[in-house]
Design a protein that fits this description.
Helix content is 57%, strand content 5%. By secondary structure, it is mainly α. It has 3 domains: 3-21 and 35-401, no CATH class; 408-446, no CATH class; 464-630 and 656-681 and 704-723, Rossmann fold, CATH 3.40.50. Strand 5 (573-577), helix 26 (599-616) and strand 6 (620-624) form a beta-alpha-beta unit. The radius of gyration is 29 Å and the shape is elongated. The two termini are 40 Å apart.
Amino acid sequence: MTTYQAQRRSTDVNPEGPRRPQGKPQAPAADRFRPDIEGLRAVAVLLVVANHAGLGLVHGGYVGVDVFFVISGFLITLHLFRELQQTGRIRFGAFYGRRIVRLLPASTVVVIATVAAAWTWMSPVQAKAVVFDALSAAAYGINVRLAVLGTDYLSAELEPSPLQHFWSLAVEEQFYFIWPLLLLAAASRTASRRRAAIALTGLGVVSFAVCVWQTGHSQPWAYFGIQARAWELAAGALIALAAERLKAVPGAAVATWLGVGAIVASAVMFDETTRFPGMAALLPVGGAVLVIAGGTARPRHGAVAILGTAPMQAIGKLSYSWYLWHWPALMLAPHVAGQELGTWTKAAVAAGSLIPAWLSLRLVENRVRFNPVFKRRPGRGLGLGATLTALTFGAAAIFLGLPNEVKGEGTAQDTAKALSQQPAVSEAQQLADARKKLLELIATSATVTAMPQNLTPPVTAAANDRPEGSKGCLASLDETTIKTALSQQCDRHGDPQGTATMVLFGDSHTEQWFDAFDAVAKKRHWRLVVLTKSGCTPADAYTIKINARRAFTECATWREEAFTKIKELKPALVLLSTRTYTDPPVDKAGAPAGDKAEADDLWSAALIRSAKRIQQLGAKPVIMQDTPDPRGTSVPDCVAAHPAAIQQCALKVTTAIYASRRTANADAAKAAGFPVIDPTTWFCTDTVCPVIVGNALVYRDGSHVTASYVKLLTPLLQAELPK
């Protein structure tokens, strides 16, 4: 599962909006307490929690977030427009003060408690990341942080944060920073529903268009971004503006039942492969609209018959608190237990989080919300907000100031010295000795149980152990041109004045070898050109774009431009490499290009097609097999969590090298007469690939090799590379 898929499971939302208690008949009819909306909150939060717990019946339970957005848009606009009608203005201080009093006390408790728990049970690397998530959540910007991480291939397999469900609060608060100003400007002092509806419709149409477009091009931004979610809140807001007229619309009862059915159907039919939000979001959003709009007429035989029952009302009342607590509980429980949780254990954890949710409601939310200090003067909530935000930032600063080291045991042999301090004999003998010493170190390291004190790089710095020289040479997922890389002088590495040229052509698993190839190019006085793109194979095939569920057309466009550049360069040698664990080829529309059983052959054929194109351009293609792959399990995090039992982090050869595809590539290359470099023995024994060799940490994340280890392999690579 990719990180973004995991992030979709963590989709959560603020399931609470302003609520008017029962027993206030003087309120306008449309603004009285709505048991159907309270029950709708229960439906939404149950879908979300069930989805997070992994209950198979609701793979699309993430649609609960869309329902919550519609509810919130309806309730907030109902209050804002009523105030505008009564006073001709909107008291922004009071509005934001009420929002703060309602939401921030409980969320602050959850954020600080989650950071403390992460610092206690998660690895130091993970715990530090949670602190930064807390800062983003406190600033209502975590949705932007998640969108950036979701579109960064190098971060695409991070474990979901226990605080990432706060993205939905960020979306709501960003919307409510814009909407009151737009409402006031559009409706003016006359409180014109028509002008307000026109402005809201315009906002919604633009947002929906962006949502549909962005879902196909950059799904994380469509999923987490306010620009692609505003239309859902706007849909609820439009119902609020039409509330009085909707009371007389016939068929209200039927509409509410159809709405509930649409929401449940979307939760059952959708899953992680659904292009969401996009057009698909119309089903749950439309369902929520039907329930709320139909319920405005308070039909006798509507869905309130179920939504208004005591259990649904109780769950709806707890929905905000449960939303806050259940996801951190699910994310932290495996770290507390020391193992992955089964489905029923997850369900038990999610259900158990109702206890802190209930305590939070009684001891924090209600005590602050109903405090006379804030009831009489809502604007005072702004001061409370400033205080609570400062408290969160202060707590984060304290945690960041605590020791964040992982202590090792003993001192391991220095791998760099072991490979370089060879007898003063011939270069061939030095190479043989270095190869022999590396194999011995790998075999010995496979039996070591404790992380050494002199680990290089330290696990807390591993994520940044990337090839610095190629900075700017790895095109992003969305780029379609090599021009950015060329502007960063990515065609001027090695010996820029060299008479021969070598090209690195491929994805990030190609770019990770930069330091070794750069050193070889300098020694041979060759010019080195780096043409690499995140997630983009050099093989002549369409694949699925990460986090987009469609054909990676950006890769195909970029690859053709790279071929054009290679033709212009007239290089002597082109090194092609790609991550082995990549989706099999698809057609341009994203449909499978062949039988899954033939995936390896389809893949190797595509790789050889590219090699032949390069050969026809006058260059010598060399195919480099992939490095053993942790397959998404962050090695630094694992080592930090198990410093006295690092064997738990070692990779099994049977799963780390994808033998069938590796064999298909090798056989196809041999048949075509192309040289192949296989680095497997530089990482593994016959059965295991240790993640620490001597004192060298091999991987910087769940996929890529550290630049430090790559540098150690330079002599071995040089010997394998054709001259």
